[in-house]
Amino acid sequence: MFRLFRSVIDGFILAPSLPLQEDFVYHWKAITHYYIETSDDKAPVTDTNIPSHLEQMLDILIQEEGERESGETGPCMEYLLHHKILETLYTLGKADCPPGMKQMVLSFYTRLLGRIRQPLLPHINVHRPVQKLIRLCGEVLAAPTENEEIQFLCIVCAKLKQDPYLVNFFLENKGKRADSKEAAAEGLREDLSSPDTGQPQSPGPGAGSPSNNSGSNYNLVSSLLNLTKSPDGRIVVKACEGLMLLVSLPEAAAAKSLTESTELCQLLTERLAAFYQALPQSMDPLDIETVESVNWGLDVYNLKEDAAVFTGKRALISFLSWLDYCDQLIKEAQKTAAAALARAVRERFFVAVMEPQLMQTSEVGILTSTALLNRIIRQVTSEALLQETVYFLLGEEVGPETPTGISQIPLRHRLIEHCDHLSDEISIMTLRLFEQLLQKPCQHVLQNLVLRSLDERNYMENKPQEEREEREHMENGQPHDAVDLEEDPLFSDLSPDPKLPSPDWLSCSPPQSTEHSKPDGKTEVHKIVNSFLCLVPDEAKSSYQVEGTGYDTYLRDAHRQFRDYCGICQRWDWRSSPKPIEKCNLDSPFFEGHFLKVLFDRMGRILDQPYDVNLQVTSVLSKLSLLPHPHLHEYLLDPYINLAPGCRSLFSVIVRVMCTKLLNFLFFPPYPISIDHVTLLEGVIVLEEFCKELAAIAFVKFHASASTSP
Question: Locations of Basic and acidic residues compositional bias (predicted)?
């Protein structure tokens, strides 16, 4: 009643611009008088009028801003800034006097920063107490103020995201803390006892300026990191969201402080390691591969239901969820911060935790760790983390590979050897791992595994074209079951795609010549196609005389996959045509590289291996064949290259398989059929289909270049 009467009287006796300010001062003085006049400081703040006065002060500030021009500071805000009200509230909140005052202060700061539109943080009398209040957050786990703390920290993060330069105000020089108890107490005594007319004592408040950030404390990050350890999952998610905002700020000083002066790298890697180490030592690779993806922050689960599906599901989802957070955080981070965070994951998780698991001799352990690594690679999308993951697996070398140097990177050597492991399960899983790597947008994968061995084209015989022996595989220029490429109606559906490049390493139009090679050395595409189609004799073909089983069934898939690969490889500095032969060092000894050597060795045993192994080997080779690199295309898809003595290509490996065991089997069939011969027959089926797939890939690549060439 008294306040209502007073407001009415003030409305008559004060100038029109004063009522809000007078009311604002009244509420503030009511709070300060409480501390001067009250001796009982044990009663909770909710039993006082302080919450109501703070609410009224905030409403007045919002009303004042709404009545003024945008950006104009009113007298109430001037009063709050000049009289260091936020400093005083911070001191009261720190003392938590009366009990619960810290909650009230945090809530007031949060709503003030969130609801006032004009920029407040540049003012020294705002960002300084805000910085001090930040340090109070996360001090005690499961504190009753956690909810208010995280809301306050997140609103500060949001404000910094809006104006990233302001982050410099929150990088505090180490060893230079003005937050001494004596200074705070003195500030409180001065504010509570000084007479106040409600008018500014000096010109309007000035903005502070950021200090030298060398060796800075980043308390905002530290407080958020503390809150990520809260037992309340909602608090943890909010803290992670706040960190996501901070790492994305473009300020270099903040990025440096984030990775060098906080425990962010430690948090990410230690938690990743802890989740990984909580996984069972043995897990079914199929469970690892098929468990549903969980985006971080949405990790809702039921322990009983998860355990009923398979043992370790809950632990696996928790690991994948945190991996997703690390990946997204690095993806959003400023460039130098992203590189530092990804490097920390490589050193403190991949090398320290995963590498020993991958290098172990237990087959069960190898299988589980390889399946987990495959899932990790599949899930990683951030460029920096993907690069560090690849460096961890393959090393950073890009120079020519030598037979004596294949064990230089022990993990790379071990993984490639696992592609030809005695355990078929380990071989298949490791081949899947490499297939997954080949599909990631990382140029280093291909350079390290295959391209560095093909750079000099020294797989070719060092002889002039006219001295090379003619090949005999055609009758009257065409095989009897040759396919007319130009008249197949399916080809009309493979319309030109703007995503496809226009390379020079394939001929630009279907050639009419019946010679084996064109004058410039490029082989006619229809002869290449038919060379692959005719590799398997008709007598051995499972699909012979069966409609709808030709290579054209692979064309659509090949077209789609090639288009996808072209989209990935577009920004890489790959040459559009082969390195001129006169510039190649053809005299240097050729080594196909450890990876291709193992693949070719397995391909050479395709008639002796289990069906599933063969499918995976051919799948990896088809992925390599699809890549739009001229040397890889030449080496894997041109049957007519003149190989140097002792060298082999994909085509020559398949021919050798045909000329040995398969022909022997056709002319001297066993009776009765044994299990070994069932394996052989399954191998023939895979080989036949693989040849069709290679023929389709060769044609699609030719068609793409012809369609996009001028």
Answer: 181-192, 461-475
Peptide bond into 164 cis (omega under 30): no
Instruction: Tokens for 309, please give them.
Output: 């599906």
Question: By C-alpha distance, which of 492, 516, 520 is closest to 506?
Answer: 520
The C-alpha atoms of residue 170 and residue 246 are separated, in whole angstroms, by 11
As a whole number of angstroms, the distance between CA 696 and CA 557 comes to 9
- The answer to whether the beta carbons of residues 289 and 263 sit under 8 Å apart is no
Distance (Å, whole) CA 9 – CA 1: 12
Q: How far is the C-alpha of 193 from the C-alpha of 369, rounded, in Å?
A: 68
365-387: string of b/e by CB count within 10 Å (b at 16+)? bbbbbbbbbbbbbbebebbbbbb
- DSSP-derived letter for residue 217 is E
Query: How far is the CA of 617 from the CAs of 202, 469, 609, in angstroms?
Result: 80, 32, 10
Kindly list the distances between the CA atom of residue 182 and the CA atoms of 36, 91, 95, 125, 186, in Å, as whole numbers in the listed order.
19, 11, 13, 18, 6
CB neighbourhood size of 139 (10 A): 11
Q: Which two tokens stand for residue 586?
A: 């053809």
CA 291 to chain centre: 19
**Which of 104, 212, 110, 120 has the alpha carbon at shortest distance from 153?**
110
Q: Are 338 and 330 in contact (CB under 8 A)?
A: yes
Go through 50-72 and write b for each residue having 16 or more CB atoms within 10 A of its CB, e for each that does not. bbebbebbbbbbbebbeeeeeee
Query: Which tokens sit at 325?
Result: 């957070």
Which is it for the CA torsion 263, 266, 271, 274, positive or negative? negative
Among 292-301, 315-324, 372-381, the least confident range? 292-301
The answer to whether 113 and 120 are in contact (CB under 8 A) is yes
| Cα distances (Å, whole numbers) of residue 510 to 382, 486, 521, 705 | 42, 8, 15, 11
Q: Tens digit of pLDDT for each residue in 434-483?
A: 999 999 999 999 999 999 999 999 999 876 554 544 443 443 344 444 44
**Mean pLDDT, the chain, whole residue set:** 83
Q: State the Cα–Cα distance between residues 695 and 471, nearest whole angstrom.
A: 19
